[in-house]
């Protein structure tokens, strides 16, 4: 079994100014190629966890850490942020805050320029990133003229150019309209294909995570209270309610239908699953229908 | 109110010149403007240059020119009223004498100002601020300083947009800042708007600083590596040609000015101003010479 | 909705056009027809570029229509001075940071009333009432910068409703917030609508909240009102929604696929509809 890409073992984090720890006793692992979603209400510690994985804590934001945060087996405390950021990329929430160059292609090259890569290598990484995300037509655009979705995609591409193994996302679609959000999700999906990279994504809405994540983690008051596959996650109404998180509408509907006595063997959590399941139940040709 | 016109991406002759070349040209142009006695020539010359060589029509920056007009008018007026005899026959409001040399002097200064302003925006409209920053970096300027200047240019349009929203929000609170003729109200409106603008900028700057750090802004310093400059900035034959033409033009302007007897009897203030310009010019020339060698 | 004589309409628009001035010259509104009764809770939805923001700006009086009729609270609201406008139409912008003008929460809420020329006693009373109502009273001495995002959002709303506008326009109150906070804001708007009869117009793209809170939905597309009506009706108009790239909430889509009638737009409705179907 391959080593986990990220491993946390009983980690707690407390900011200097906070009276109590923001994260408590966190233990979890991310395997190579896994897509993990992190969900929780405001103040549950989601962003802190992400910053921990990115090495932002302790290197950029000061905080007390107890326990080990291991990236490819090495403690983040022992590595510099410069080194960590080569292997772990982070895409933030605000599309306006991640693009500082005038032209898109300059933005994509910028991270590589800073690292002193030879120009030929920069050129080839630039070309491969542009084609990977199919944003060649954006390369000569001015960054402040782009739409929100385009900006986030360029931010992601700029991180991709550095070729990290792990991608972290901090509410990447929360500031975007539905079309922009869909574009960004499509870009992330391309990353997740072939399980070439580990992806950890923090989001408020569970809907997109449910479709793409291998696992979902629920944070409540700084603790991990649930770590499960999408279906199991969505059906734990008790934990979700306590944490102030709602599952997908379909999952909510499944739970209510099951409570009312409807026999749903595999409770649907997406629209496709629900449609298929209900069609099966409602189709006259299938014989008996069951109801409460 | 746009004081510095934004870069408009394009592929003209001017766009493709090295920023340092354009700087040399602007400086030579400015000095020439102050030497030549026919003030209206130079603004037309620079507008033509921008139009033909930069493919930017005056309509794209006519707002800037509009902004210049009241300033120019004010200058002419001041000279008309404060310069000495001889006077025109007509009098302002029937009483106030209007100076004849004041008319010439006023126009001279006004048009020179216009030429200067338009030359500056020629630079900013056709030069990617990052090309400019990186050219200066290659010429020896500290990377972070060079980057910060360009970075400010990149965020300027965003601040402008936010300011519009803020002014509307101010209006939503019943405060009549926009369109108010009361200077106190207007200025207070500006002062009040600074807080939300500043807050927004401050909040965003924290994220920006983090994002920059994560993409290696301090990498070179931390690890001891040297940054690569990916963009292709160097002085090409056409750059040298333009520099040569600019310097020749300056010499010609000096010559012409002396021949016409128009070499200005420069008042002390202008002398100081020109010396500063000269020092700047030398410093830039020195930097450029370092690049050419290196 | 019963009568719709102009005096009973919060918003009346006919052939409303708006063109941004040179150099942009974009025709953002191409002939909008709209009647919003007083006391309505309406959602304005549409893609970026559909004209929804321009419509909201016209209704709030910032933009002057270039053609057509627009009467808001039975006046041509763009003619009014800001102080007069504020008591008719309030506008809460998307980003709370753009709307915080004073260094103390209390002062920020009082600011609008001061501009309206209210007496110190009136200000004292109104500000306290609004701050308590929005649960910001304990934070009244803080600098707005110190507040959380959710609190800043509430502060921005407080600062506008303290002026008691008849109509309140709220621009994307949900961006950058989790669903729980978004629901709190919507609950607040619903209470204002119910208790004070304030007409609410909210621009949003979260269809689940539209289904739960709005009684009227206005779908914008390409500078026109493509469709308007109660949420249930709007979500069943598949073709128009496809054109305007609006996606109904998942339960509504389910209802459309299964042909459930009446179309469920919330989870409880979907549950009931499906149970009814199954027991047939």
In short:
With 292 residues, chain A is α/β, with parallel strands linked by helices.
Q: Residue share in helices of chain B?
A: over 70%
Count of helical stretches of chain B: 11
On the 0 to 100 scale, the average pLDDT of chain B is 83
Q: Report the biggest beta sheet of chain B as strand number plus sense, adding barrel if it closes.
A: 2 strands, antiparallel
**Largest interface (CB < 8 Å):** A-B, 41 and 35 residues
Write the topology of this structure.
The complex is a heterotrimer of chains A (292), B (294) and C (280).
Chain A: E1 6-15, E2 23-30, E3 35-40, H1 46-54, H2 56-59, E4 63-71, E5 74-75, H3 81-87, E6 88-91, H4 104-114, H5 119-132, H6 148-161, E7 166-170, H7 178-192, E8 198-202, H8 206-212, E9 215-220, E10 223-228, H9 230-235, H10 237-243, H11 249-259, H12 271-282
Parallel strand pairs in A: 3-8, 3-9, 6-7, 7-8
Antiparallel strand pairs in A: 1-2, 1-4, 4-5, 9-10
Helix pairs in contact in A: 4-5, 4-6, 5-6, 6-7
Chain B: H1 13-16, H2 19-35, H3 41-54, H4 62-82, E1 87-92, E2 96-99, H5 100-126, H6 129-138, H7 143-172, H8 183-214, H9 219-223, H10 237-259, H11 268-293
Chain C: E1 9-19, E2 27-37, E3 41-45, H1 52-59, E4 67-72, H2 82-86, E5 89-92, H3 105-115, H4 120-133, H5 149-161, E6 167-171, H6 179-196, E7 199-203, H7 207-213, E8 216-221, E9 224-229, H8 231-235, H9 238-243, H10 250-258, H11 267-278
Parallel strand pairs in C: 3-7, 3-8, 5-6, 6-7
Antiparallel strand pairs in C: 1-2, 1-4, 8-9
Helix pairs in contact in C: 3-4, 3-5
Describe the structure.
The complex is a heterotrimer of chains A (292), B (294) and C (280). Chain A is α/β, with parallel strands linked by helices and 292 residues long. Chain A contains twelve helices and ten strands. Helices cover 40% and strands 21% of the residues of chain A. Chain A has a six-stranded mixed beta sheet, sandwiched between helices. Chain A has a four-stranded antiparallel beta sheet with strand order 2-1-4-5, with helices on one face. In chain A, strand 1 and strand 2 form a beta hairpin. In chain A, helix 4 packs across helix 5 and helix 4 packs parallel to helix 6. Chain A is globular and about 65 Å long. The N and C termini of chain A lie far apart (46 Å). The C terminus of chain A is likely disordered. Chain B has 294 residues and is mostly helical. Chain B folds into two domains: 151 residues, no CATH class; 91 residues, no CATH class. Helices cover 71% and strands 3% of the residues of chain B. Chain B contains eleven helices and two strands; from the N terminus they run ααααββααααααα. Chain B has a two-stranded antiparallel sheet. With 280 residues, chain C is of the alpha/beta class. In chain C, the strands form two sheets. Chain C has a six-stranded mixed beta sheet, sandwiched between helices. In chain C, helix 3 packs across helix 4 and helix 3 packs parallel to helix 5. Chain C is globular. Chains in contact: A-B, A-C, B-C. At the A-B interface, helix 3, helix 4, helix 5 and helix 6 of A face helix 7, helix 8 and helix 9 of B.
